[in-house]
Amino acid sequence: MNLYEHQQKVGKSPARFKVIRGGRRGGKTLLETEILIAKATYKGGRSIFFIAPTQKQARSIIWESLKNRLGKIGEPNESRLEMKIPSQDGKSSTIFVAGWENRENFRGQPAHHITFDETDTMKIFFVGWQEIFRPALLDTNGTADFIGTPKKENPNLRRLEKMADKDWELFHFTSWENPSIPREELERAKLDMDGETYAQEIMAEYVDNISSLFHYTSLVDMFSNTITKSPEKYLIVDIADDGSDKTIFNFWQGLESYRIEQFERLNTEGIINQIREYASQDRIPYSQIAVDAIGVGAGVASSSLLDGIIGFKSSYQALRTDQSIVHLPNVHYLDHAPLVSEYRNLRSQCVFTLADLVNNHNIAIKTQDVRIKEKIIEELALYQDASKGDGKRFATEKDDIKAILGRSPDLSDTLIMRMYFELKGRLLPHQSEDRARIDEKLEQHFRRNEARQSMNSAK
Asked: How far apart are alpha carbons 89 and 447 in whole angstroms?
């Protein structure tokens, strides 16, 4: 079959891994049909995987195309979506067609080539790639293609391009490069579509989610950033709501998270003992330990064995860290302009603070656990500026994040809570008071919040 010029470049490339970003109707499926067949007909019986976002999509995207292209040469199994074809030396190869939701069926199976189609619509893609499919290529020295039109909500292709090295090659073509599409139709699409959609779907360009607080590339960079660390150490603990899920301990030196530990089914006593042990081992003062003081966490935060730790609650008022621009010094007997806050609550203030640090590459997370990486990126990518025009900045509520994820954003919570100590540090340069007075003012601040919440719950 004759391929267009841009398709030929992909087919002729000797790269082991190829990221192929193309516009709609740009010829991606036709190209991959030819690649799958070519890979399967090499000498020796081969296993070739084609993975689409869902089984239904796999059937509609490639299965019918394979049957039409192979005719009587192939032996299709309709129920299993497996196509057997003869290889050059008379042996038999199999092309397995499946949906991403069935990826566990491929665990432990060797593959000579894998094609991932519509890669940006596959959830927790990198967990499946690194735990299931990358190991499948070890014994065979196999190859892989990652194909799709970019999506701003789940930019796997963008991340693959960022991590590509010498074994990889990147390809980008637009819908315009398919000569079989009428030019007038593409011109009409340019008029009918909004600019952002046209850029993404036709030109295959990356479009940032403008309302997102965190830049996606900056989220990915957190795990490779090198920052100058301060000597202070911190421990942030996110406690499972009912004490039966995972409790997360995140260890920090300055703005570098250097270790993350997770425990299942820790009760209050177990959490308290673990905090005391970690504080001793890592020489972390209690005043630099924060716990989520909701539910089970309230008992931990109020324990006499942990006197001095910070009990964090999202609903607390934001800390006043910025000087009022409408009040001048030396007016009304003030030496300094009064401190103000422009955030709806403490959690929003911490989320915006974290976003600023992440987007400027000032946060580093040292972990090799791909599941931890994926969850942190997935969770933080959902935060948006949800301010409502009342002058108070407001980030997406945690309950809304939970509803989208289908789980609690526990890992990212430990990053958000870490920002409390950054905000606390901002108070110092604005005041002539010593550290003891600052700490006392913060303690009063939290006691007032506790009292208000107790009064509200009693009404």
From this structure: 79
Dig out the tokens for 396 from the structure.
């997406």
**Number of domain units in the chain:** 2
Give the separation between CA 338 and CA 188, rounded to whole angstroms. 57
Amino acid at 9: K
Residues 6+ apart with CB under 8 A from 399: none
Residues 113 and 95: their CA atoms lie apart, in Å, by 9
| Residue numbers of the domain that contains 51 | 5-207
One-letter identity of residue 73? I
Torsion of CA 408, 409, 411, 417, to 10 degrees: -110
Residues 149 and 256 reside in one and the same domain: no
Say which DSSP state 132 is in. Answer: I
**Do the domain assignments include residue 173?**
yes
Residues 234 and 102 in one domain: no
Token pair listed for 182: 């009428």
Same domain membership, residue 154 and residue 249: no
> CA 31 to CA 148: how far, in whole Å?
12
Residues 173 and 251 in one domain: no
Upper half-sphere CA count for residue 323 (Cβ side, 13 Å) = 12
Query: Torsions phi, psi of 128, nearest 5?
Result: -65, -40
**What is the three-class DSSP state of 362?**
coil
Quickly list H helices, 324-409.
346-359, 370-380, 398-405
Examine the domain organization and report whether 236 and 194 are in the same domain: no
H or E element that contains 323: strand 322-323
Quote the CA–CA distance of 247 and 237 in Å, as a whole number: 7
pLDDT tens, the chain, 459 aa long = 577 888 888 888 999 999 999 998 888 888 888 889 888 888 778 999 999 999 999 998 889 888 888 888 889 999 999 999 988 777 889 999 999 999 999 999 999 999 999 999 998 899 999 999 999 999 999 999 999 999 887 889 998 998 888 899 999 999 998 888 999 999 998 999 888 888 888 998 888 766 789 988 899 999 999 999 899 999 999 998 754 468 999 999 999 999 999 998 888 899 999 999 999 999 999 999 999 988 888 889 889 999 999 999 888 787 776 554 444 555 444 455 444 558 888 999 999 999 999 999 999 999 999 999 999 999 998 999 888 776 788 899 999 999 988 888 999 999 999 999 999 887 644 443 444 554 555 555 555 555 555 565 555
Q: How far apart are CA 18 and CA 10, in angstroms?
A: 8
Residue 402 belongs to some domain of the structure? yes
Distances from the Cα of 268 to the Cα of 299, 306, 329, 371, angstroms: 7, 12, 48, 26
